[in-house]
Amino acid sequence: MPERNTPQKTLESWKQIAAYLDRSERTVRRWEATEGLPVHRREHEKQDTVFAYRHEIEAWSRLRTRCPGDNSADDAEGLPALKPANNGYLVEHDAITRTMHLYIAGCRAGDGDLMRPAFHPFATISGYCQSVEYSGSVEHVFQWVTANGPAPNINPRFARIEIIETIAVVHLEVQRWSGKLAGANARASDVFTLLKLNGEWKITHKLFHWHDQ
Amino acid sequence: MTTSRYLTEYDGIVKTMQMYIDGSKQGKSALMRPAFHPDASFFGYAGEQLAVGTQFLFDWIDKNGPAPRIEPRVVSVDILDSIAVVRLEVAGWSGNLAGSDVRMSDLFTLLKMPTGWKIIQKAFHWHA
Predict the structure, then answer these.
(1) Across the interface, do B92 and A86 touch by the CB < 8 Å criterion?
(2) Which of A56, A81, A106 is the last residue of a domain?
(3) Using a CB-CB distance cutoff of 8 angstroms, which residues of chain A are in contact with residue B127?
(4) Residue B71 near residue B91 (C-beta atoms within 8 A)
(5) Where a domain ends, among A55, A81, A107?
């Protein structure tokens, strides 16, 4: 039984997520696709059943409202903004997460163009696709994702986000891949390297491994 | 690890970590105690003082009081069947003992028990 006054740790439906963010369900669903709203799906449940970790939604929400002219929830509550000195790690971590969510949104939608802005223009990839090596231009990824079509059930988890000043490594575990090329229920382990370019984090290389079924 | 196991374990680990985060945020050691194995160890420097033992942590959390603006981020989760290592970066610490706007780096080792993933070790660094 949850303690009284203990806030719920997870939001267990689109309805709860929408209520938490004070928006319509339609808006928050759109935010998943276009703004990297971090929602998750559980194994063995219908594709449309989602949950979200409160701390991830809070973090996403703070980053999103940190723009001039926006109604910041922080300002409304009179909370002071985190000082840059202690905020630096967070800002970079969240910026990297946003870049990665662009990649995830592209995979979900089966749209290579949607994920393109997450990548450095000269980004490359390496990995095997059904025993065939794909090493070369990142265009392979955009073409593959588009040809594969939507993968609405993918369930990503960040296994690692390691930041060293202007470079970063991200290890992403992606379950429940589907589509014309991926098959029915595939798991991929992806390792990305990123570079901070003009204040934005861009993927410079993607290394991938498809797990056996 | 098979497809469904990874997610199950990852989410189980995050669920345990959330107990630690909730206890920290509310300044209530009772909330985080269930996340720890009874024999868990705990080490770090709290200012000049070497802090040892989970009781130090639980007393500190209760004395520090609520830290409502902490911003936790999971940096890494390494899962090796029955053991795991988690690194947490927590900015925005405040409270009677923490002061204001403090950042901590936390390293946890967890063990998979029948009752769920339990923290068996915590080491922290308090950034000046």
Answers:
(1) yes
(2) A81
(3) 86
(4) yes
(5) A81
Q: What are the pLDDT digits (tens) for B32-49?
A: 999 999 999 999 998 889
- pTM (two decimals): 0.75
| CB-based contact B6 A157, cutoff 8 Å | yes
Set out the domains of chain B in order of their start, with CATH numbers.
Answer: 3-127 (3.10.450.50)
When CB atoms are compared, the residue of B76, B89, B101 closest to A160 is: B76
The amino acid at A46: K
**Interface test mutation site (partner A, options B74, B80, B89, B106, max chain A beta carbons within 10 A):** B74
Q: Which residue on chain B is closest to A7 by alpha carbon?
A: B22
> Does ipTM top 0.90?
no
Identify whether A176 is part of a domain: yes
Q: Are residues A38 and A134 in the same domain?
A: no
A130-186 pLDDT tens trace: 888 889 999 999 999 999 999 999 999 999 999 999 999 999 999 999 999 999 999
Is residue A93 included in any domain, yes or no?
no
* A73 and A108 belong to one structural domain: no
A72 touches chain B (CB under 8 A): no
Which residues are CB-contacts of A171 (< 8 A; sequence separation ≥ 6)?
A158, A159, A160, A189, A190, A191, A192, B76
- List the end-to-end C-alpha distance of chain A, in Å, as a whole number: 38
